[in-house]
Write a structure and sequence with these properties.
The chain is of the alpha/beta class. It has five helices and five strands, in the order E-H-E-H-E-H-E-H-E-H. Helix 1 links the parallel strand 1 and strand 2. It binds ligand FNR. Ligand FNR binds next to helix 1.
Length: 191
């Protein structure tokens, strides 16, 4: 099996973010040979096309971090039945300058948690549309709708519910398989 490095973006900058806890849980559940690293977005300023001629260092670092990994998981809450503005802002930085979209050909997976009965399904649907426009292959199954029931996470951050933990392991394995499927195409682009 090939070693993989998967980046993850947390679509919440809340200091008490449940989605960050979910991302940390995924980090711990990663199969052998797979490393998860965060791609931070909190310090990105608001995107404007005025920056296209000379991206600030923080945005260059953000785009480089996406280039440096084999795939990206976006772990996001749902805000008002869509994705949070901070996440959309980050995706807009990634999309530009024109012709240099960071997600072009980058395998992606989406997962998220909220207390609502449909979890983050509406936000994820919008995110799939955005990633499709960016030409990012996206994991279709399994779908990562994690309902944040009380007791989902143990005190130490582990996923307390065994069924959910097993689901997350399978989710990471499925994303690994998607990454492997697209790896030859990505190597050709990089060469
Ligand atoms: C929410 N929340 C929410 N939940 C949901 O399931 N569907 C929704 O449309 C919304 N909308 C929404 C808007 C705004 C502005 C806030 C602040 C919250 C609740 C949300 O899922 C909950 O606060 C999560 O805990 C947010 O994720 P993090 O920040 O804990 O990762």
């Amino acid at each position: 099996m090939t070693d993989r490095t998967i980046g993850y973006i947390v679509g919440s900058i809340s200091s008490t973010s449940l989605n960050r806890r979910l991302a940390k849980a995924l980090e711990r559940l990663a199969p052998e040979g797979t490393t998860l690293v965060e791609i931070p977005i909190a310090d990105l300023p608001f995107y404007s096309p005025d920056h296209d001629a000379d991206y600030p260092q923080v945005a260059r670092d953000f785009k480089q971090a996406i280039d440096d990994v084999d795939g990206v998981i976006i772990v996001t809450p749902e805000y008002s039945r869509s994705i949070p503005g901070v996440l959309k802002n980050a995706l807009d930085w990634a999309a530009r300058p024109y012709g240099e979209g960071s997600f072009n050909g980058t395998p992606t997976a989406i997962i998220g948690t909220s207390g609502g009965p449909i979890s983050t399904a509406a936000a994820q649907q919008h995110l799939k549309t955005i990633l499709s426009h960016m030409n990012a292959p996206t994991l279709g199954q399994p779908e990562g709708y994690i309902q944040a029931a009380p007791g989902l996470f143990a005190e130490d951050g582990e996923v307390a519910d065994e069924g959910t933990a097993a689901f997350l392991v399978g989710y990471l394995e499925a994303f690994g398989a998607l990454i492997d499927r697209y790896a030859p195409a990505r190597e050709t682009v990089a060469a």
